[in-house]
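Margin note: ligand = alpha-D-galactopyranose.
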Amino acid sequence: MKTGILGVLACAVLVSSPCAAAESYDARITEKQILTPAPPAAPRINGPVVCGARPGKQFIYRIPTQGERPIRFEVQGLPDGLKLDANQGIITGVTPEGRGDHVMNFTAKNGRGETNRPFKLVVGDKLALTPPTGWNSWGGQMINVSEAVMRKAADLFVERGLADVGFQYLGIDDCWMRLTQEMYDHRREAVVKKHASYDYRATGTIGPIRDEQGNILPNGKFPDMKAMTDYIHSKGLKAGIYSSPGVKTCQDWAGSYGHECADADQYAKWSFDLLKYDQCSGGAFLKRLKRNVPGFQSRDLWAPMAIYLRSQDRDILFNLCQYGQDAPWTWAPELGIQSWRTGGDLNHNVNHYFNNALRIATELRAYNQPGQWNDPDFMYIHRIRDVSKMGEPSVEIKLDTNQRYQYVTLWAIICAPFFFSCDIENIDEFTVRLLGNADVVNLNQDELGHTAEVVRNDDKKETVMLKKLADGSKALAVFNRDAQNEAMISVNWEDIGGGSEPEVFDVWRQKSLGPFKGGISVQLSPNGVGLFIIKK
Ligand code: GLA
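Resulting structure:
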């Protein structure tokens, strides 16, 4: 709500930064307040307008579209080799052999209206021209991840509208594989404590980890990987899997060391579209290799899997997880790796979300580009499990409502891989609407891939950030960093290179606010955030 002259006066009293000519706006919220409006009845096409793919590879893309079903889709300019399911809006097939751009036009029509959106398929070497989006099983499911959960997650993406705003990947994290009796015995005590109530035998988790040909075997919770990915693909969504360059994963189950080729082949045979490759026990190897093999470098541990993934008949994104050690941002892009973790696990330290994001917006920003993204870890939103007692039910993260809005806002504007991780079977409406705001996801997916810059920052008081958008507009985010007190945070247009009276759009409320003269003074709750598009 614009609050006129009174707000301006309040601004003058409350803040030290200059805001003389700014108009004020009240963006305070109440506990668990849902800001995202209900989806429109007429069709609205969301998601990226650009997509990278390698030549001659399997391709799948669901046109993320809100609106009452049934919707009828049309695509103009679809290259040979690709076909459209006009009722579901899913494009499948094989990408052209030649490199080049294919400009298309998507149309979606229902009883309430019709809309268009351009889309460019860039066939070449780069994937992930915009940050990958999706959900990962770690935070919410941990050791309990199963084929059944993955299928449910795919259903939920469609039923609750997350697929309609552009969420694409469903990623299995650790604990889909097996461990041998010997591996189990070796760490019985730790296992008993951490994995209490997990039944290793009933879940078929103990046993040979590979078949006689050396192919990796899933445990009993994944009776048919291929049928599972087929199911995920039937909804136009994509599937992710997990392993380690070490012998063992972080939960001490089977990793890929020495079997990189066989594992990459197997992931492709199972039709996976993404691999999260997590250092875990590979760290000890790396130290030994560096000590004993002249010239051995970190990248040499990761290169085999990167090479084998690239040789498959489908594009498989590579998400490297080395907790920010050995500066992967300096060498991972050359290996064809699309994203890398920049630090430790946020589920243990969820309140570090702000620092993780600020680091990407500052010292690591040069490494964020279309095709290569810093990964500050998932948005751990809503209910997650405690890693020291995985058998126990999930619990609410210790972030208040405003912090959850801050967290998602930051991931959107710093171009983080837009992955959330929570107990998806018990996700609530607040969280679905928090994550499912099409305008917020679209900011993350903006084709320019510009990482928000810090305009000013005081960790105890306020942070102001600005992200340039492809159409020449700017996304402005103002954060109240004070956990106890409300604040009025002001930004003058002249300080952010704006015109004198631009149109302002409130992204969370999906509402045009009209022209604002001079600047904006935003009234925020403790830990509050305001996210605006300042139109060109
Ligand atoms: C590490 C990773 C996490 C998760 C766990 C699984 O801690 O950083 O994201 O994958 O391993 O064991």
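The chain has a mean pLDDT of 95.
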